[in-house]
Amino acid sequence: QVQLVESGGELVQPGGSLRLSCAASGIIFSIHALGWSRQTPGKRRELVAGIDTAHNTNYADSVKGRFTIFRDNAKSTVYLEMNNLKPEDTAVYYCHARRINEFWGQGTQVTVSS
Prior knowledge:
7-stranded mixed β-sheet, 4-stranded antiparallel β-sheet, 0% helix, globular
């Protein structure tokens, strides 16, 4: 059974930082492309960052220079380091893994507010 479990979401003030983690089980982690997406009520889910099996990364324009995605294959975990957070970053953040099939976690809430 494949599981992706996110953690690290919380309430943070504007300008603050958070690190999200996503621990995977039930898949051969190293051969999957990974990503983080986010969603707010009434909006489409948005891809925030992706990392492939060669550790190449890509980011949404709205988070470039502020967010960093990285992976630790030994721990089967993908991370999203978020700096200089803004209120518009408030969302539920989901991690996902893809090779042939795609798997999603349940999400973790990030709220940026003073």
